[in-house]
Design a protein that fits this description.
Layout: E1 3-5, E2 11-12, E3 15-17, H1 20-29, E4 37-41, E5 46-54, E6 60-68, E7 76-82, H2 88-98, E8 103-107, H3 120-134, E9 141-142, H4 148-155, E10 163-167, H5 179-184, E11 187-192, H6 200-208, E12 212-214, H7 223-238
Parallel strand pairs: 1-4, 7-8, 7-11, 8-9, 10-11, 10-12
Antiparallel strand pairs: 2-3, 3-6, 4-5, 5-6
Helix pairs in contact: 2-3, 2-7
Length: about 240
């Protein structure tokens, strides 16, 4: 069944009235007719099974059922992603959403080729669309980029009990060595560098801040590939993929 994300659902007397953007999507993109069914969700775990009641300027949906869904990640995973150029961040946001990341935080590092971006709203929309497609009932938060000062003085202090892992091309320790800690952790913070990777100095600083330094084998991976493999490994160890 088609799924539609609405950040703020106002359900009154069994009716949901869509805003202009979602009305256009239902009427002109999906080309739905009166009586067609779809599911509406807002990222809280609750889904509304609806039928199209009217196709006026603001499409009206009639609620047939309300379902508390349990399709959500087993563990909170926060991806600290070295800021990437072009469409590479689009790929990371979309695919990381599909494999269960809870938050995506772009990080400006020494070797980042760009230092700022105006694409955060675009990335949030990509995360929303990916959640809709993969049947997640939540939508990952994509934050504005932070720099090293923000990371060490503010961000990490919010997660004192999280397991922190930095994936580094020269890392010699297999992530499997941290299997027990990964399984026991409620929150895992993963950091992956940008194009060109992280500097030795950055990795040393991260290790001093409590990050486990892990490698991904002998192959040199593209930054966006390394990010998705890193998340996938953590999810597999956690039992998300069976």
């Amino acid at each position: 069944m088609t799924r539609l994300f609405i950040e703020r659902i106002s359900a009154s007397k069994g009716i949901i009235i869509l805003d202009r953007e979602n009305s256009h999507y239902v009427r002109n993109v999906l080309r739905f007719s009166r009586g067609d069914k779809l599911t509406v969700f807002n990222g809280t775990g609750r889904e509304y099974v609806c039928t199209v009641f009217s196709l006026t300027e603001n499409v009206t949906l009639s609620i047939a059922d309300v379902v508390e869904s349990h399709i959500k990640p087993l563990k909170e995973i926060i991806l600290l992603q070295g800021l990437l150029k072009g469409r590479k961040m689009d790929i990371v946001v979309r695919k990381a959403t599909e494999i269960g990341v809870g938050s995506i935080v772009p990080v400006v590092t020494e070797r980042s080729r760009i230092r700022s971006t105006s694409k955060v709203l675009r990335w949030r929309k990509i995360a929303m669309e990916a959640s809709r497609q993969c049947r997640r009932t939540d939508v990952p938060n994509v934050s504005h980029p932070i720099d090293a000062d923000d990371l060490f003085t503010d961000f990490l202090s919010r997660y004192p009990d999280a397991l922190k892992v930095v994936f580094y091309e020269n890392g010699k320790t297999p992530v499997g060595d941290f299997r027990k800690q990964i399984r026991e952790a409620k929150t895992v913070i993963i950091l992956v560098g940008p194009e060109g990777g992280l500097s030795d100095g950055e990795v040393e600083t991260l290790a001093g801040a409590g990050f486990k330094v892990a490698g991904l084998g002998d192959f040199i991976l593209r930054a966006e590939t390394a990010s998705l493999i890193s998340v996938g490994i953590i999810q597999y160890i956690s039992g998300q993929f069976g």
